[in-house]
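B., you asked whether I could sanity-check this one before it goes into the benchmark set. Here's the sequence:
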Amino acid sequence: MAEAREDETLRGEDRYAEDLSGRSFLRCTFVDVDLSETESVGATFEDCTFTDCRLSAGRHEASAFRSCRFTACSFTTAEFTDCTFLGSAFADCSLRPLRVTGGDWSFTTLVDADLRGAVFTGVRLREVDLRGADLTGATVTDADLSAAALEGSRWAGADLRGSDLTAFDPRATPLDGARIRAEQAVVLAQLLGLRVG
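And here's what the prediction gave me:
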């Protein structure tokens, strides 16, 4: 039977390279837990708090991290495929180089996050809070960035092809060297108040 834990505190545990598939954690607190190189398919973490945890090099698929809070955690080279982080928040975390394919990261808080070189492909990022985040050289393709908070974010050299750019203010959010498609250039021109055609 898959592990199911509620309202527990896990402190200093070594879960290195464990298979967390199908396990469920509700309102649990993780402190200084080593989750490096863990794998999961269909795991669920809901309303959990992670502090000083290591999730580096993890491989997670179709798992849910809903309304979780991550503080000073490491996600170096972690990969998430079709996972949800709906409503979760990251603070002072090491997120490079993170790779995310598919899934729902809507309403996620990534204020001041260092996401240089990170990869988000086909991810729902609706109303994500990226204020002050550094996405220099990041790949954010075919992503839904509608209604995202982008004040002070940096996107130089980013690959934004196929993503929803309606939340961008080209006057306030520099896109120097960013890659976009022709139809996205029309959207940016309209956001600048230009008449196209």
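One thing to flag: The longest helix spans residues 182-191. Otherwise nothing jumped out at me.
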